[in-house]
protein-serine/threonine phosphatase (Morus notabilis), 323 residues
Amino acid sequence: MTGREILHKMKEKVGLGSSDPDSGKGKSKLQKNVTHGFHLVKGKGHHAMEDYVVAQFKQVEDNELGLFAIFDGHLSHEIPNYLRTHLFENILKEPDFWAEPEKAVRRAYRMTDDMILDKAVDLGKGGSTAVTAILINCQKLVVANVGDSRAVICKNGRAKQLSVDHEASSEKEHIENRGGFVSKFPGDVPRVDGQLAVARAFGDKSLKKHLSSEPHVVVEMIDDNTEFLILASDGLWKVMSNEEAVNAIGQIKDARSAAKTLTEEALNRKSTDDISVVVVMSNEEAVNAIGQIKDARSAAKTLTEEALNRKSTDDISVVVVRF
């Protein structure tokens, strides 16, 4: 298989078209008004793009699942790419997923990290953060994360953070109890053993004794007040607050455009990271509540553009989901 063919296969897995490799959109078959859009922008670092996105609806037996995720790698792209392929697969293999999704997600996260560490020679020395969202029959949302990629839901026009930022400074005691330390040098963020800015991640075999891959997991019910969901890597959140991200896509009609707008705004705000944004959105009441946004891809585009405007230099990935 040629490199071009491999890239095309990778795009198909997340809904990317061959002519538009950095964004995509889709919609639910169960609820036609539930749509998603996403957008990715490479940061200014001298490395390959290390953000990977999943954004798709999938039929499982008699249920529809919306699978959305952002995997933000560091030191290499192998581990986030591995997560893109295997993490949801492992979650859905859990026998108690339908009865106890929170328990199943936690177990699958731990098992997947064990698999990554066993393959450390093949996958390199790096690691990855993760934020995942599983939408079950457009009624229940199961969100999990390790690291600093974030999930923010908008209800009644207000931003609500569903994930937890696992920063080194906030878990200093746990890191020290494992024999590690948290450094803080002038002009830099706190880091685990002077190296990693997050306290939880997949991989990072050389630091694993001092890191955790235990996810924060929360279940959020979808109701008439639910407007949209944003998943984004830290390339966005370093330069935008939750409220700013929600407000930035208030006039966008297309979810993919909203995601792109956010990534571009992050770059305008001097973000240097890779930036990935996913936006998921739905229902007419929500459209009225947040202005003119009707398409998740436009919303994702908007968030991307906003991140660029704020000079984000990270890779930028945005997924927007409307409810």
About this structure: The mean pLDDT is 86. The radius of gyration is 18 Å. The longest helix spans residues 101-118. The chain has ten helices and 16 strands.
